[in-house]
Design goal:
This protein has 346 residues and is of the alpha/beta class. The chain contains 12 helices and 12 strands. It has a single domain (2-344), classed as TIM Barrel, CATH 3.20.20. The strands form 2 sheets. Strands 1-2-3-4-7-8-9-12 form an 8-stranded parallel barrel, surrounded by 4 helices. Strands 5-6-11-10 form a 4-stranded antiparallel sheet. The radius of gyration is 19 Å and the shape is globular. The two termini are 14 Å apart. The model has no long low-confidence stretch (mean pLDDT 95). It binds manganese (II) ion (MN). Residues 196, 234, 237, 263, 309 line the site of manganese (II) ion.
Length: 346
């Protein structure tokens, strides 16, 4: 496996000098952040990111994400223009040596939590999702933790209204339309597309979601069979869905060569419904068996990119929620241990 770390570019408060000191770190996972969604990324921006990483001995082989414009997801008349721009971005990232692109197809919100600084028993804090708190949110007057700056109230209400006419089937067909145009270019330039699952893996505010479980994945892979049409196995996202058997999914999709990118984090189911809290990476701290998941991946041929996903705020750090340094670095070390053990006992 290749251990990587998400890095928000030159403005990230965590310097590459620290990232390179995490044991076994091979490279960064990053993106161009100052270009509006749907537009073409300047090649100079990509080269600048790559150069900064290379100067510190780090690779830049994974992009997370090239975001998909809402008009593509909604299948609007101008989607072909945005798809053409997307394809141009695929060509450009390939040109600077990128091998894998993570993206998602979630309408409007690409993740959702009800609390950004949930206080844990050990004094750390982390992201959490409470079913009871979610029920109290009024979709017509949305003030969501972590989302308030992304859209104005008017924009948000307008988008939610537009999506009222989009069914699960529509959204799926729009995904297939997108992939049928993008994947042939990926086949040509050697890019692996890795769709990120819905987070959490169920519909929210009446918005359809179509990458939540095994059935969804099978449907998507059957529709566009190229192996470059693949998956980011995000254990925390799928794992919030209690019917998702992560060990089985790891085994099945590793064997099929569909897992191009791995996000490893644990979550703790906190009541009888859909609630969960993000916890440290170790199996003992949450509801997922991380060792069994990694073993299933390795035994079935997975040898791709891995990154520690969200961490807690620990050691007094007040990091970008989920993306502080310390707990992700501890998670990385734990991941190294799980992989070394699994790989040597294959
Ligand atoms: Mn993830």
């Amino acid at each position: 496996m290749k251990l990587t770390f998400r890095w928000y570019g030159l403005k990230d408060s965590i310097p590459l000098d620290y990232i390179r000191q995490i044991p076994n770190m091979s490279g960064v996972v990053t993106a161009v952040y100052d270009v509006p969604v749907g537009e073409v990324w300047p090649i100079e921006s990509l080269q600048k990111l790559k150069q900064a990483a290379h100067e510190k001995g780090l690779e830049m082989e994974v992009i997370e994400s090239i975001p998909v414009h809402e008009d593509i997801k909604m299948g609007k008349g101008n989607r072909d223009l945005y798809i053409a721009n997307y394809i141009e971005n695929i060509r450009r990232v390939a040109q600077v040596g990128v091998k894998c692109v993570c993206y998602n197809f979630m309408p409007v919100f690409d993740w959702l939590r009800t609390e950004m600084h949930h206080l844990n028993k050990d004094g750390s804090n982390s992201l959490s999702y409470s079913y009871d708190d979610f029920k109290k949110i009024d979709p017509h007057n949305l003030h969501l933790p972590g989302w308030d700056e992304s859209y104005s109230q008017d924009e948000l209400q307008h988008l939610l209204k537009e999506y009222q006419n989009i069914s699960h089937e529509d959204l799926f067909n729009n995904l297939v339309y997108f992939l049928e145009r993008v994947i042939p270019v990926c086949d040509e330039v050697g890019i692996k597309m890795a769709i990120h699952p819905d987070d959490p893996p169920w519909d929210i505010f009446g918005l359809p979601r179509i990458v939540s479980n095994e059935n969804d994945l099978d449907k998507m892979f059957n529709a566009v069979p190229s192996v470059n049409n693949g998956l980011t196995l995000c254990t925390g996202s799928f794992g919030a869905g209690r019917n998702n058997d992560l060990v089985h999914m790891a085994k099945k999709y590793a064997k099929a060569g569909r897992i191009h990118f791995l996000h490893l984090r644990n979550i703790l189911w906190t009541d009888d419904y859909d609630s969960f809290c993000e916890v440290g990476h170790c199996s003992k701290d949450g509801s997922l068996d991380m060792a069994k998941i990694v073993k299933a991946l390795v035994d079935n041929g997975f040898d791709g990119y891995v990154r520690p996903d969200h961490g807690r705020n620990i050691f007094g750090e007040d990091g970008k929620p989920g993306y502080g340094l310390y707990d992700r670095a501890l998670g990385a070390s734990y991941i190294n241990g799980l992989f070394e053990m699994a790989e040597k006992n294959k």
